[in-house]
Amino acid sequence: MSSRTLPLLFINLGGEMLYILDQRLRAQNIPADKAKKVMNDIITTMFNKKFLEELFKPQELYSKKALRTVFDRLAHASIMRLNQASMDKLYDLMTMAFKYQVLLCPRPKDILLVSFNHMDAIKDFVKDTPSILSQVDETYRQLIEMYTPLSSGDFQLIRQTLLIFFQDMHIRVSIFLKDKVQNSNGRFVLPTSGPVPHGTQVPGLIRMFSCTGEEVNRLQFNNGGSYTSATREGSFEIFGDRVTKLGTNMYSVSRPVETHMSGTSKNSAQHTKVNAAPNPLAKEELNLLAKLMGGLEVQKPGNTDSGFRVNLFATDEEEEEAFISRPDELSYGVINIQATKGNAELAKIMGEFTESGDQSPSASSKGDDLLAMMDGL
After folding, report:
1. What b-and-e string marks burial along 239-266, b requiring 16 or more CB atoms within 10 Å of the CB?
2. 85 pLDDT exceeds 70?
3. Residues 8, 162: contact at Cβ < 8 Å?
4. What is the pTM of this model?
5. How open is the CA angle 137-138-139, to the nearest 5 degrees?
6. Which residue in 114, 111, 71 sits closest to 94, CA to CA?
7. Residue 210 pLDDT exceeds 70
8. Which of 125-129, 295-299, 341-345, 349-353 has the highest mean pLDDT?
9. Cβ contact 29:62 at 8 Å
10. Distance (Å, whole) CA 178 – CA 78
11. Is the Cβ–Cβ distance between 265 and 186 less than 8 Å?
12. Please, which residues have CB within 8 angstroms of residue 170's CB and are 6 or more apart in sequence?
């Protein structure tokens, strides 16, 4: 498992969340000033300096529940509100989109190009707000500083860590199904055509050499696909052509997006429960949540006119039906954390990361450390 995976996971999932929210804000004809405030508030929260300092520290990935709680908090960092079913759908779309991008990356290193595509789009969202733009530019600098020196082996380990995180998620998404890149069981279809990864050759030729390095024979074979030569390499700088389209906004063309629980997802419920077992990283996970909550002000609408609700479904009835029909085992059990009463709620989450029954002294001290930290914020 790579200790450098968390920043990429957070930034790419955050980018997908912003794509979806931008599309829904426009689809529901939310006034431009309110829509801009929502996007600006979320991006400001996402790139909060203290939060990113914690995020970029080498560490293992957090549990699915902890990460989902972060994004639940992030989505409600402004005047917009989402019902539980819409939040579930939002997170499903985010995770499946990034899983697809990771699977289709020609090289493990291209995950960084996918991240830059998300960053480029986020930068465009706030191009008219210099203060937020500076936060985004600082994150570019941190990404370049941390990831460009890494070897191919390091990126392969990052890719493997991401795929392990996503391996039990098989939510069917209408866009992927219509484009025939996802099967009815929720699994993605990997292409056997197109350009090969940069720095490689089209498969189909075996060359044999003598002990002196002289080529002595060639054999050709059928590669089973329709491959072409590699395209030029994308830019790993703050500015430049990324070449790959993975990580760009697939919602820029207006079309409805639905999610469905596949049979595979239901069958993987047992794996999901195993993943929810006591996590030795509980203290670090909760410190991340505490810093996100403690350092940021929660937007609370002063009156009924200032806040609004966004629905990721076509109608309220569909949203209600989705909430009722969603299997319990696929719920992340997110707890809404209010900064004003964070101690009790964080303590409640702390209990979920520990064994049932008597709490061990170490687990208890973790909770005490966190509560003391919250008191100091």
Report:
1. eeebbbebbbbbbeeeeebbbebbebbe
2. yes
3. yes
4. 0.76
5. 90
6. 71
7. yes
8. 125-129
9. no
10. 33
11. yes
12. 185, 186, 187, 262, 264, 265, 268
**SS3 per residue for the chain:** CCCCCHHHHHHHHHHHHHHHHHHHHHHCCCCHHHHHHHHHHHHHHHCCHHHHHHHCCCCCCCCHHHHHHHHHHHHCCCCEECCHHHHHHHHHHHHHHHHHHHHHCCCCCHHHHHHHHHHHHHHHHCCCCHHHHHHHHHHHHHHHHHHCCCCHHHHHHHHHHHHHHHCCCCEEEHHHHHCCCECCCCCECCCCEEECCCCCCCCCEEEEECCCCCEEEEEECCCCCEEECCCCCCCCCCCCCCCCCCCCCCCCCCCCCCEEECHHHHHCHHHHHHHCCCCCCHHHHHHHHHHHHHCCCCCCCCCCCCCEECCCCCCHHHHHHHHHHCCHHHCCCCCCCCHHHHHHHHHHHHHHCCCCCCCCHHHHHHHHHHHHHHHHC
Residue with tokens 């964070």: 342
Q: Rounded to 5 degrees, what angle do the CA atoms 346, 339, 277 make? A: 25
Tokens representing residue 180 in the block: 């025939």
d(CA 292, CA 59): 17
Question: Among 23-27, 88-92, 237-241, 256-260, which stretch is predicted with the lowest mean pLDDT?
Answer: 256-260
Backbone angles phi, psi at 220, to 5 degrees: -105, 150
Q: What is the pLDDT of residue 290?
A: 56
Please write the tens of the pLDDT for every residue from 347-363. Answer: 444 444 433 334 334 33
pLDDT score of 303: 47
Residues 6+ apart with CB under 8 A from 201: 229
Classify residue 71 as exposed, middle or buried by CB count within 10 Å of its CB (0-12, 13-18, 19+).
buried
